[in-house]
Amino acid sequence: MKDALHYILSEVKSKRLAKTDALDLIRQFETKTITNKSSYFNPLLHQNTSNFTEQRFSSTFIGEEFFLTDHMVKGKKMLPGVAYLEMARAAVEQAAGDLEDDQTGIRLENVLWIRPIIAGEEPIQVHIGLFLDDKGLISFEIYTEQNNAEPLLHSQGSAVLTKVADIPVIDIKALQAQCNQSVLSPIQCYEAFRSMGLSYGASHQGIEKINLGTGQALAKLFLPSSVSDTQNQFVLHPSVMDAALQTSIGLLMGAENVNNHHPMKLFLPFALDKLEIIEKCTAVMWCWVRYSEGSKSGDKMQKVDIDLCDEQGNVCVRLKGFSARSPEGETGPAGSQATPESLMLQPCWKEQAVAEEVAAYDYAQHLVILCEPADVIREGIKTQIEGVRLLSLESEPKEIAERFEDYATQVFVEIQNIINEKNKGKVLIQIIVFSQDEEQLFSGLAGLLKTAQLEHPRLVGQLIEVEPEETAEGIVAKLRTDRRSAIDSHI
Question: Which of 6, 152, 259, 433 ranks highest by number of CB atoms within 10 Å?
Answer without folding.
Answer: 433
